[in-house]
Amino acid sequence: MLIEVYSLVVLVSVIGSWVRSDNAVFRFADQLTEPALAPIRKVLPPAGGFDLSPMVLLIGLQILSGLLR
Predict the structure, then answer these.
(1) Residue 30: CB partners within 8 Å, gap ≥ 6?
(2) What would the pLDDT profile of 6-21 be if each residue is shown by its tens digit?
């Protein structure tokens, strides 16, 4: 269940980056996800101006969830 909740936090962070809102919820989501996204961003450069690191993180979380079941 924790993986699903964290996946939702990643999605909130992505939506916050699209909206560019200074909302406290989006800032909190960024603080929670940045430690996991930063290493992915170092390895995976932006593709066509898009940050694909959240997608890689979500795929990794789904794989981890499947392994833990």
Answers:
(1) 13, 16, 17
(2) 999 999 999 998 887 7
